[in-house]
Amino acid sequence: MEVFEGAYGGDIMDLSRLNLNNLNFDNLSDKRRKETRQILLCYNRLTVLSESISLFENLEFLDISCNALGVICDDITRLTKLRTLIAKNNRLDEFSLPKDFGSLQLEVLNFSGNRFEEIPTQFLQLQRLQSLSLGGNRLKTIPAEIENLTSLELLYLGGNLISSIPVELANLPYLSYLVLCDNRIQSVPPQLNRLHSLRSLSLHNNLLTYLPREILSLVQLQELSLRGNPLVVRFVKDMTYDPPSLLELAGRAIKTRNLIYSARDLPAHLVTYLDLASKCPNPKCAGVYFDSCVRHIKFVDFCGKYRLPLMHYLCSPECTSPCSSNPQSDADSDDEHSVPADRLQRVLLG
Prior knowledge:
The chain has helices at 2-6, 30-35, 230-235, 246-256, 268-275, 334-338, 341-349; strands at 8-9, 12-14, 38-40, 61-63, 84-86, 108-110, 131-133, 154-156, 177-179, 200-202, 223-225, 278-279, 288-289, 294-302, 306-314.
């Protein structure tokens, strides 16, 4: 009783970091129970959640993270006003939940750092859920029924064993933040372009070798993290730019102004050097380069199906490459005109 009374601050009961291994709220006054809106039980040694938790009829927020919980008691489903449940870093799996867990009116659910191998069907019944975090579990798949969570705004599934993204994920109209980093994902379905509310997409540390061109139509997208994927590691190893030497500047001036030269005018090694000039790939630029160039990433159509990130070497930082949609054609595609060049680079580098 003394522990409970000393833990109160307004409508919050803070019982975290007290090394508790069991709890019973039966002796707590009715007044305290009704006043309590938040309970913090994190960083204890609880192996079970007391059934007396159901006595807090006005409870809205419950944090039971960092314990040793292996099961969630059935009585939690009686907390009709509970909106946030945080149970990170326990020993929970898909068999630890009450059958009627899906009847709760939860808006925020965080079960990261547990032992889930599947997303429980009860989670997929939470119609009001806005934020679902299951990072650091053992998930191998994302069920198609994820589309049932039509109120979802944030989905965090980083640090699992997921190898594919279901197209049904694209049916979440309010999804703004999607975190799928540190998995085994090899491809992104083009249907994700239907996520019109998506602002942040984290795909770093996966097995992606390409991106679908449709991803560029996500007009609200502000962050796209791709580091640690083959498509970045392979194409973006060194993005530095060394200013041209005086020799190169002189060589560029000779080539761009079409000045005539021969072995009678210049030493042989300079003639050879001038003959090695590379034309800037930007069709709107008449420049050339020798040793100093800007490495620039552009997405290019591949077989009319995917957009591959390709490295282009430009003559200067001020030069941008429109980059033909078809490598066999000099004409720019409509897609290239609709997407600014700086956005293409930002999308790749995240």
